[in-house]
Specification:
68% of the residues lie in helices and 10% in strands. It is of the alpha+beta class and 380 residues long.
Length: 380
């Protein structure tokens, strides 16, 4: 769109200079004003015909004939130089928008218009001058067209390579995730088959021993049995967690940020304050934080003009875990809590935390707070 306005500016300037070079009584003739209006009508229509080469070719040829009739016939001299600029702009548009064969046809029409006044007995450019000028323009525009074609081909190859690179990275991430999950499942199976079975056998032996023990030894055997039962429960819990997909936590968030920076060209400033890495968050809290950050960055990609975000994790005093995602804005936005933000808030609240969404004049902030629980479910 910007190039269109640049071309239009040059065209209006060339026409204005050519118009001012004519005698006043000639410049203000009604028929000349009508021809000029028809020229600009065709020039404005031309962008709408970029996908129809035949129609666009006819439009540019018609515009060149109108320019010749309005400015070139009957007069020569200073304003003729501006007519050459008009022809050059039409030739440039033909090369830029048309296939080679159609551009050649427009070029032949422009050369004919340069020599047309002499056919009617009016002063005109010398034939050799017109031919040399056409040859110079054709050479320059052909080089430009070739360079433009090569650039488009290079851009296309780059897009294909970038697409393949992104697909390869996604495959690598998927394969790594599948390999890790397979390894975790195998470890869980080994623990279940070896440690789990042995602890179960130990519990049975301790129960037999308790039934055979005297009153003095029975309490001690009961304590050992309870310890073995707790060990078995912890082993089962570990096996269950290993079988679940690896989601959430700081590692998953770092992997997500790395992926967004590589594939979506985002800039993420990630800051971890003292104590945040060692904060003993529950699995549900860690998962809620991961999903909140993921949703915040997804909204940034969809709705923000900026591709830059600031993420901060901190645990002030060791009693709470706090995270904040900030996106810089060019214009103030109105916060409407849709499905994404509502789901984020519900997930944080289910994990025992709170979520705050604030839109400042220069930034959009999502801030969440999680209580850090000690053993027994009490807050620190």
């Amino acid at each position: 769109m910007r190039s269109y306005w640049i071309w239009l500016l040059f065209m209006v300037a060339a026409w204005l200079c050519a118009w001012l070079s004519l005698p006043v009584e000639e410049a203000l003739k009604p028929w000349r004003l009508v021809v000029a209006a028809l020229f600009f009508m065709l020039y404005f229509i031309a962008p709408l015909l970029r996908n129809r080469p035949v129609w666009l070719t006819s439009t540019l040829i018609g515009a060149s004939i109108l320019a010749t009739v309005a400015l070139q016939l009957e007069y020569t001299g200073e304003h003729s130089l501006y007519v050459l600029l008009i022809y050059s702009l039409l030739a440039g548009k033909a090369i830029y928008r048309l296939p080679p064969i159609h551009a050649v046809i427009v070029g032949i029409a422009l050369l004919s218009n340069l020599l047309a006044p002499s056919w009617f007995g009016y002063p005109s450019f010398p034939p050799m001058f017109a031919i040399l000028l056409a040859a110079i323009h054709a050479t320059g525009l052909a080089v430009y067209s070739h360079a433009k074609t090569n650039m488009e081909a290079t851009d296309l190859r780059n897009d294909v390579l970038l697409s393949e690179y992104r697909a390869m990275k996604r495959r690598i991430v998927t394969n790594e995730k599948a390999a890790r999950q397979e390894e975790r499942t195998q470890i869980a199976r080994d623990i279940h088959d070896s440690v789990g079975h042995k602890l179960t056998a130990l519990l049975m032996q301790l129960e037999v021993l308790r039934m055979q023990a005297d009153e003095q030894l029975a309490p001690r055997v009961t304590e050992l049995k309870e310890l073995a039962r707790e060990s078995l429960e912890e082993t089962r819990s570990a096996v269950k967690s290993l079988k679940q997909p690896e989601t959430g936590g700081l590692t998953a968030i770092l992997n997500m940020i790395r992926k967004l920076e590589a594939e979506q060209f985002m800039r993420v400033h990630f800051t971890v304050q003292h104590g945040a890495l060692s904060a003993p968050l529950r699995a549900s809290q860690s998962f809620a934080v991961y999903r909140a950050v993921q949703e915040a960055l997804t909204n940034l990609m969809k709705h923000s003009e900026s591709k830059e975000a600031f993420i901060t994790f901190e645990a002030p005093g060791g009693g709470i875990f706090r995270f904040e995602v900030v996106n810089r804005l060019k214009n103030k936005v109105v916060v409407r809590e849709g499905f994404g933000l509502r789901s984020m808030r519900e997930r944080i609240e289910e994990a025992g935390g709170t979520l705050e969404v604030v839109a400042y004049p220069d930034s959009f902030v999502i801030r969440g707070v999680m209580p850090i629980l000690k053993e027994g479910g009490e807050t620190l």
